[in-house]
Amino acid sequence: MASIVRTSTGVRITGINEVPPLAPPITALPPATILEALDQRDVHDKWAVQSVDTVDNGRSLAASILRGEARAVSDGSFKNNMGTSSSILFHTKSTDPLRIISVNSVPGNCDEQSAYRSELAGISGSLSILAAVCTVHDVHTGSVTIGLDGEQAMIAASEDWPVSPERPDYDLLTDIRAKVKRLPIQIRWKWIKGHQDDFGSQALLDEWAQANIYVDSMAKAYWNHINTEGHRPSPQGFGDESWSISYQGRKLSRIDKIPLYNGIMEPDSKAYWQKRGQMTADAITKIDWTLVGKAFKNLTTAKKRRVTKHATGHFGCGKMMHIWQFQDHAECPRCPEPLEDPPHILTCPAPSAHLCWTTALTGLEGWMTKQHTMPELQSAVLKCLHEWRHPNPHRCSRSSITSRYGLRAAVLEQDSIGWYNFLMGQPSARWSEVQQRYYEWLQRKNTGKAWTQALIKKIWAVSWDMWDHRNKVRTSSITPAKLRAIEALNHQIELQFDLGKEGLSHKDHHWLSESCAHVFTYDSEHKSQWLSSIDLARVRFDNQHEFEASSIRRQREFMESWMHRNRTRQGPVQNYR
User: Fold this and answer.
1) Greater confidence, 560 or 39?
2) How far apart are CA 110 and CA 113, in angstroms?
3) What is the set of domains in the chain, with CATH numbers?
4) What does the alpha-carbon distance between residue 173 and residue 176 come to, in Å, rounded to a whole number?
5) Beta strands 100-105 and 51-53: pairing type?
6) Angle, helix 351-370 to helix 524-570, in steps of 10 degrees
7) Is the whole-model pTM more than 0.70?
8) Beta strands of 298-354 (E only): which ranges?
9) Contact 44, 237 (CB under 8 A)
């Protein structure tokens, strides 16, 4: 040992001293009992045996291992997001007084608990007892057969194929496989049919079945015990799981990419959309992000790209084209607006843009009608979208909207989120609830969530129609495809005139007031709107007749029921003539 002083040129030794001899390392004595062996385990493995009952310190079990006759049976119990397990190790009979019985509670997060994980915990308990017996009695050869009624747990624990980190209970499964390899003895596996006592006398069952019934009852009894004490499972590491991942101080049993990604990225994503959509922190939590994600997932790659670009504002509108220096101005190609930003794509006041908007909403209205949308909901959405595009200080009072099925609350919540955000595919979670209750009233099997998911895709189509129209105006070229489209529109118009006024209500006869030749003079957008409007009128006529017929039938049934009740109460009518 030397003492030194740092100098400008380096260091200088100022003294030397002899190093005292190191004390000899203290060697831990090998455990003499099963309890000592279990107590000397790694702290991460002590959970596997929380209570154990042994009579002869495992001597008879060690002898049966050497003869290859040892048996171990385990089972688990799972209820209310909490699991326990029990194991029994014996020679020939589960009632052998020299048997070893143990129990444990299953570690892990509450949402990761399962009957499968409890089965694996039972295997861990058996392996811990076997390791302790081999250590205490210096067993280096022999075999034991482990039996359980969880076939999938047995297969996963006994095989050696690679385990995906995304597999449920990856941590416990890898720990079990490593412990099996570390044992100096051979492990055999046996599947036991569970709950055999439900089909006959227990006395007629073999020792495997009787042992399985016993550990099943022990696991349930231990579950009741720890539940009474208020125990709640918590995650922890295992001695042989090799590696683990934790998030927000909580160890995970596997890598579930979706919630992990959401947990990491969701705060930043919500903060971004809060700023981009000019929403409050409270409003952004009211968006049905789950259904938005499902609707987005069903889009094609090209549509996903388009929706994302439009929602973020990073696409070829006048403002961005000017910023990117692709053009020397940011003007709208459809109107004199000098700054064409993303919202202007939808609010452009140009007559052709207004016609495109009207056509798009007519298509949305038609879709909503065909999907049996609640009429008041349909009217509210279309009216609110119209008011958003044409701001008016005297807008429709929200108090005039019906509160049936929570519709008014849904509209008010969407007001706080914003109707531009609605068009960007960010609806309130209340819309699906309202439509679901309406479907239940109609006694239809449709669901409000499926309706909302389809609605999101439809409103994305509205923004696409406006964007597509803007680009057509900008390019303003007539292509053969456009000529074919005009011919197809003319053909459909002829078909509508051939159908005539039959199937149209009186108020919709005006669609056929002009001649077919006159309608041919409309431009393509006007023709499409005309066709959508008359198609919708015919659908509305059919639905109205269906509704009236159903309403009259219900009224008739109600009147017949009422008259029948009155006759029953009043008895036969007397004739006083």
Assistant:
1) 39
2) 5
3) 34-245 (3.30.420.10), 286-475 (no CATH), 492-554 (no CATH)
4) 5
5) antiparallel
6) 30
7) no
8) none
9) yes
